[in-house]
Amino acid sequence: MLRLSIVIPTFNESQNVQKLLRSLEATLGSTGWEVLFVDDDSPDGTAILVRDIAQRDPRVRCLHRIGRRGLSSACIEGMLATAAPIIAVMDGDLQHDETALPKMLAEIEKGADMVIGSRYAPGGSTGDWDKSRQAISQLGTVTGRAILRQPVSDPMSGFFMLRRKLLDATVRDLSGVGFKILLDILLTARHMSICITEVPYHFRGRFAGESKLDEMVVWEYGILLADKLIGRFVPVRFLTFSIIGGVGVLVHMAVLTAVLKGLGFGFATAQSVAAGAAMILNFTLNNILTYRDRRLKRWAWLKGLFSFMVACSIGAVANVGISTYLFENRTQWMLAALAGVLVGAFWNYAATQFYTWGNAK
Ligand SMILES: Nc1nc2c(ncn2[C@@H]2O[C@H](COP(=O)(O)OP(=O)(O)O)[C@@H](O)[C@H]2O)c(=O)[nH]1
Ligand SMILES: [Mg+2]
């Protein structure tokens, strides 16, 4: 009988897979569990290696995602791809102590809905982190604790176990953005009465390979919180897209002034250069921030820039057309302009979401 599934998100973890599997077997024995690697098409061939092992060992499975990135969404899709009544999420680099799994399982059997592997509970530790890493983790932990209703010592943990029931109750409302899947679940379950317990563990050093988390973790964390707060009313992607659009307008004006007044070119030339510069900047920022999980690279980047510029040019024509029509039909000029801008922004967002970032590869 399958009782426990361990979902492991991976990106370039091929050197850790074998050791991790041996450690799991040593801790969990030979039956009753499976391990599901969710790999985002790692260039180092993690998925190929896992499938190779899986051919000989039916406890090992691989979910291979293409054109996607993201720790949280990988965990969600992995959890949904198993039939086990109890699911654990764990990193693939041996930083999470697998010997805590039996203790976590015992907590679930005693009635817990969620058991968190905690680095900050008495008996746990974070290992040797550098100052900036410590600061980021601390910031996340403090804000996370503040918004949760229940006392949780390590809401930023990536190591936890839950009953499938709790997943089913929350999965439709999860944000799935960024890397804090535990916090996403806890915030979604904030109003439910669930039993949460903790098992302390020592966070180990990475066995092989390197960390995938970069400076952008703070940004992604902010997006997760924003989505939890206002995502019901406005899609956070649309909000970021619009803010970047606003930045684009400022850049447009600055470039226009420089080319027109500074360099002495004619208005049409200066306006075209400014529009081009603003579009390139907007595309670049949206690719890094708004569509981080579907980031375009190399050829796809160039193709994306082209479709972005085409889509936004159509948006500009629609903007001018609608605002002029309204203005000529006695709408106050500011309102007419605002209506044009709104229609243009919606069009740009919808069209580029579909054409530019829709089939990201
Ligand atoms: N599927 C998937 N896994 C990821 C992604 N980013 C990180 N991971 C995995 O998530 C786990 C934690 O990431 P890691 O880089 O070790 O983060 P750190 O421990 O906070 O430095 C590791 O198993 C990574 O391979 C991603 O975009 N997609
Ligand atoms: Mg790690």
Description:
- The chain is α/β, with parallel strands linked by helices and 361 residues long.
- Helix content is 55%, strand content 10%.
- Strands 3-2-1-4-6-5-7 form a 7-stranded mixed sheet.
- Helix 9 packs antiparallel against helix 10 (267-290) and helix 10 (267-290) crosses helix 11 (298-328).
- The longest helix has 31 residues, at 298-328.
- Residues 91, 93, 95, 206, 211 line the site of magnesium ion (MG).
Give descriptors for this structure.
binds guanosine-5'-diphosphate, single chain, alpha/beta, 361 residues, binds magnesium ion
Write the layout of secondary structure elements.
Elements: E1 4-10, H1 14-28, E2 33-39, H2 46-56, E3 60-64, H3 71-80, E4 86-89, H4 101-109, E5 114-118, H5 131-147, E6 160-163, H6 164-170, H7 181-188, E7 196-200, H8 216-230, H9 236-262, H10 267-290, H11 298-328, H12 333-355
Helix pairs in contact: 9-10, 10-11, 11-12
The structure holds guanosine-5'-diphosphate (GDP) and magnesium ion (MG).
Guanosine-5'-diphosphate binds at residues 9-11, 13, 38-40, 69-71, 74, 91-93, 95, 211-213.
Q: How many DSSP helices? A: 12
Q: Write down the Rg.
A: 24 Å
Please, what is the average pLDDT? 92
List the ions, cofactors and other small molecules found in this model.
Answer: guanosine-5'-diphosphate, magnesium ion
Order of helices and strands: EHEHEHEHEHEHHEHHHHH
- Oligomeric state of the chains in view: single chain
Please give the largest β-sheet. Answer: 7 strands, mixed
> Strand percentage, roughly?
5-15%
